[in-house]
Amino acid sequence: MYLANLKWTDLAALSKDTPIVFPVAALEQHGRHMPLFTDSMLLGEIIRRTESQLHKRVVFAPLQWLGNSDHHLDFSGTLSAPPRVYLDLLSGLLENFIQHGFKRLILVNGHGGNDVPGKQTVFEVRQRHRQRKDLLLLFTTYWGLGGKPHEVNRAIKQTHMGHACEWETSMMLRIAPQLVGDLKRVKPVEFGNPFEPASRGWITKDRTAPGHIGDPRHATAEKGETLFSVFTDDVVDLLNRTLRWDGKSWNG
Q1: How far, in Å, CA of 165 to CA of 161, rounded?
Q2: In angstroms, how far is CA 78 from the centroid of its own chain?
Q3: How many domains does the chain have?
Q4: pLDDT mean over 213-223
Q5: Is 118 helix (H, G, I), strand (E, B) or coil?
Q6: Are 1 and 183 in contact (CB under 8 A)?
Q7: At 7, which helix (H) or strand (E)?
Q8: Separation of alpha carbons 230 and 225, rounded Å
Q9: 69 inside domain
Q10: Is residue 55 very low, low, confident or very high in pLDDT (cuts 50, 70, 90)?
Q11: How far is the CA of 52 from the CAs of 2, 48, 58, 250, in angstroms?
Q12: The domain that contains 19 carries what CATH number?
């Protein structure tokens, strides 16, 4: 079910154990070959496919396209909510639905820069409702749920998400190839090792001059379909676990 299509009375009549999904993404630069709305378009397609499988069991809020993209602000067109502002925005979404009585709230993310504020959001909101034993507050990023597209399609060279990379470019070729530039003119940008496993503060220009990270030249629409299929299955599996939760246990 799409929240935007429901009347308030429809929502009020639902079981308060109905999971509510908040898709969160971004509008930011994606190199010289990909559109600014890439993250939102790709997550939107995953949500569309997920909703078609869980149509009557889960409510999907409209996609929140503004993300935390401060690290991309050196590139024209990027729009960003600063980290603290973004955290408060996400907290407000969860608090709205806690006030409406719902207990299973899931932020599904499609942009790497949302990871830290998203996790902090579910932590902080839980602290504010620490007397509740029936709240399930989750944050997840769709490519971090365990799926391994490169094992499903051996032609996929990349093993983890980059930026405007083989993965994202393949997915865009699958749903909107007319928005992808000439890949023959794109040069690879290595992932590198920024003092891992430590977490380094960085801006995008520390890592890449053209804006992408990875090698988009390997992208194909066929690979994009594999990626969408794997990531959609992962999100569906998580939401099914949410539906099966007994409403009180630590384990899910």
Answers
A1: 8
A2: 17
A3: 1
A4: 98
A5: helix
A6: no
A7: none
A8: 9
A9: yes
A10: confident
A11: 10, 6, 10, 29
A12: 3.40.50.10310
CA-to-CA dists, residue 89 to 99, 101, 106, 244, angstroms: 15, 19, 15, 28
Whether residue 116 contacts residue 67, with contact meaning beta carbons closer than 8 Å, is answered with no
CA distances from 190 to 28, 32, 59, 83, 202 (A): 20, 16, 39, 27, 16
Residues of the domain holding 109: 7-192+199-242
Residue 251 belongs to a domain: no
Stated pTM of the model: 0.96
Length of the chain: 252
**Residue 12 counted as domain residue:** yes
Check if the beta carbon of residue 113 is closer than 8 Å to that of residue 69: yes
Q: In whole angstroms, what is the distance from residue 232 CA to residue 171 CA?
A: 12
Helix (H, G, I), strand (E, B) or coil at 171: helix
Q: Which residues pair with 136 in a beta bridge?
A: 104
Give the sign of the dihedral formed by CA 215, CA 114, CA 131, CA 100. Answer: negative
What's the pLDDT tens digit per position in 137-170? Answer: 999 999 999 999 999 999 999 999 999 999 999 9
Paired tokens of 46: 């995953």
- Three-class secondary structure of residue 185 per DSSP: helix
Amino acid occupying residue 96 = N
Question: Tokens 């980059």, residue?
Answer: 162
Locus of tokens 């149509």: 55
